[in-house]
Specification:
The complex is a heterodimer of chains A (about 325) and B (about 180). Chain A is of the alpha/beta class and about 325 residues long. Chain A folds into 2 domains: about 140 residues, Aspartate/ornithine carbamoyltransferase (Rossmann fold, 3-Layer(aba) Sandwich), CATH 3.40.50; about 150 residues, 3-Layer(aba) Sandwich (Rossmann fold), CATH 3.40.50. Chain A has 11 helices and 9 strands. In chain A, strands 7-6-5-8-9 form a 5-stranded parallel beta sheet. In chain A, strands 2-1-3-4 form a 4-stranded parallel beta sheet, with helices on both faces. In chain A, helix 1 crosses helix 11 and helix 5 crosses helix 11. Chain A is globular and about 55 Å long. The two termini of chain A are about 20 Å apart. Chain B has a single domain, classed as Rossmann fold (3-Layer(aba) Sandwich), CATH 3.40.50. Helix content of chain B is about 25%, strand content about 30%. Chain B is built from 4 helices and 8 strands, in the order E-H-E-H-E-E-H-E-E-E-H-E. In chain B, helix 1 crosses helix 2. The termini of chain B are close together. Classes of the chains: A alpha/beta (about 325), B alpha/beta (about 180). At the A-B interface, helix 1 and helix 11 of A face helix 3 and strand 7 of B.
Chain lengths: ~325, ~180
């Protein structure tokens, strides 16, 4: 063909975590996402690229946004999609993870998007089954597509991620979004700070190249972007802070606090928001917030990841 | 590897003028016509023709877009590497318009097949025409023929046609390369 088609590909066969990616991979995903973002803003938002690919979405843990976003991304690429939730499955009858997935794969499925409460579940699966695996969140470990869409949103808003100051505020200990975000941001050359109650910041987190701040106002004055995380009550077996009210007073962002800063910062949130806890409604809905932009970018990023991984299935 | 000049810069100039005149003959004021350059290499030709029509033939308003067909290709996962996309830029509706696809070389016709699918995402055109600088005869995989052609070439399968443009490659020239 008389086309000098430029070519490049991901260094990985699965998306198990940001840990396994390099900077070129992230750039390629972002460039591909740019094209898909244009596609999903057309009046007909669908391309036929993946018409011979079947994808199983396997969710062993609840999700609305991520599941919808993945499903939409798959459908926009014309893939066939099957959905599976653990609550209505044979897992309840005692089937193992590998058996469950292998049974699904024997129905000729090419790719698996999985969310699981146990850290490392996707890595384990990738070693035992013959399909491309995308991690849609494994316990408190990683949530790579969320981190990618967060960085992509920063790049879109501020032009670049490199050299930017990003603070991640809240429940760092139980958050897979935090770990994946730290890894992705560091890989792209951003400066990262974490901020939250001491009880919710893991020991030795400095070894990831981040700094710790317990004074929210200081952290916000330092940053260009604040990524506000949700307090994950469902993962807390003990009490990590005296009361929600006290947490909000110290680590919640409200309009007055934002207005008292020296500069205008960008507010992000991976959702779901607990309005009035980590962030007030007027902040979440303000011009400084790019929360809904993140959701839109999520579809484009997931299309890019699925497209790039699917092109490696032979 | 041997390299033969198929078209010189001067010949390309003459052909561009002829193609512009042929477009003008069929589309007159370009009111209901849109020109779509196919990414990546058809865009240069489309821009050249548009400029020519504007400057030398006094066509005031002319809609030009570029269409990327990567996600519509029928060889996804069939080659060694990932297909990488280019930018699509169409800021108008093609609904009920006469669309002219513009590409540098017509070979198997598969790119055009993809473009026919891709353009549907932007509306239902009244009709679609095809303009190519080089038409490689006898090498089609699909029943697709150009409405406007610069030069017809009988190239065998081992041969390659390379179109270079001044703004991108330093000079206007078309080579026939035997590998």
């Amino acid at each position: 063909m008389n086309k000098s088609t430029k070519m490049s590909e991901l260094s990985v066969k699965h998306l198990l975590g940001i840990k396994y990616l390099n900077k070129n991979d992230i750039n390629l995903i972002f460039e591909t996402a740019d094209h898909f973002k244009e596609v999903i803003n057309r009046s007909i938002k669908k391309v036929p690229s993946l018409r011979d690919i079947t994808i199983a979405n396997i969710f062993f843990e609840n999700s609305t946004r991520t599941k919808l976003s993945f499903e939409l991304a798959e459908k926009r690429l014309s893939a066939d999609v099957i959905n599976f939730s653990a609550s209505q499955s044979s897992v309840k009858k005692g089937e193992t993870l590998i058996d469950t997935v292998n049974n699904i794969l024997s129905m000729k499925v090419d790719m698996v998007v999985m969310r699981h409460p146990n850290p490392g579940a996707c890595v384990f699966l990738s070693k035992h089954v013959n399909a491309s695996i995308i991690n849609a969140g494994d316990g408190a470990h990683e949530h790579p597509t969320q981190a990618l869409l967060d960085s992509y949103s920063i790049r879109e808003k501020l032009g670049d991620v490199e050299g930017k100051n990003v603070v991640i505020v809240g429940d760092i200990l139980h958050s897979r979004v935090a770990l994946s975000n730290i890894l992705a941001l560091k890989l792209q050359g951003a400066n990262v700070k974490v901020c939250g109650p001491k009880t919710l910041i893991p020991k030795h987190i400095e070894s990831l190249g981040v700094t710790v701040e317990t004074d929210l106002k200081k952290a916000l004055n330092w940053c260009d972007v604040a990524n506000m995380l949700r307090v994950q009550n469902e993962r807390m077996d003990i009490s990590y802070f005296p009361s929600t009210r006290e947490y909000t007073q110290q680590f919640g962002v409200n309009k007055a606090l934002l207005e008292s800063l020296d500069k205008e910062i960008v507010i992000m949130h991976p959702g779901p928001i607990n309005r009035g806890v980590e962030i007030t409604s007027d902040v979440a809905d303000s011009n400084q917030s790019i929360i809904l932009g993140q959701v839109e970018n999520g579809v484009a990023i997931r299309m890019a990841v699925i497209y790039l991984l699917a092109s490696k299935i032979k | 590897m041997s390299k033969k000049v198929l078209l010189s810069s001067k010949e390309i100039q003459i052909i561009l003028h002829r193609l512009a005149c042929q477009l003008l003959e069929n589309h007159v004021d370009f009111k209901d016509t849109v020109l779509i350059g196919l990414q990546p290499r058809g865009v240069f030709l489309a821009k050249r023709l548009t400029n020519l029509l504007r400057e030398d033939y006094n066509v005031k308003e002319i809609h030009l877009g570029s269409l990327d067909i990567t996600f519509y290709r029928d060889d996804f996962r069939r080659g060694e590497k990932t297909l990488e996309a280019s930018k699509t830029h169409i800021d108008f509706l093609v609904e009920d318009k006469k669309v002219v696809f513009i590409d540098d070389v017509l070979y198997t016709g598969r790119s055009i097949r993809s473009a026919l699918t891709a353009i549907q995402s932007f509306g239902r055109p009244a009709e679609i025409e095809l303009l190519t600088l080089i038409d490689r005869r006898f090498s089609r995989h699909l029943p697709i023929q150009p409405n406007y052609r610069g030069r017809q070439v009988d190239a065998i399968n081992g041969e390659k046609v390379q179109v270079l443009w001044e703004e991108n490659d330093g000079q206007d020239i078309v080579y026939l390369i035997n590998e």
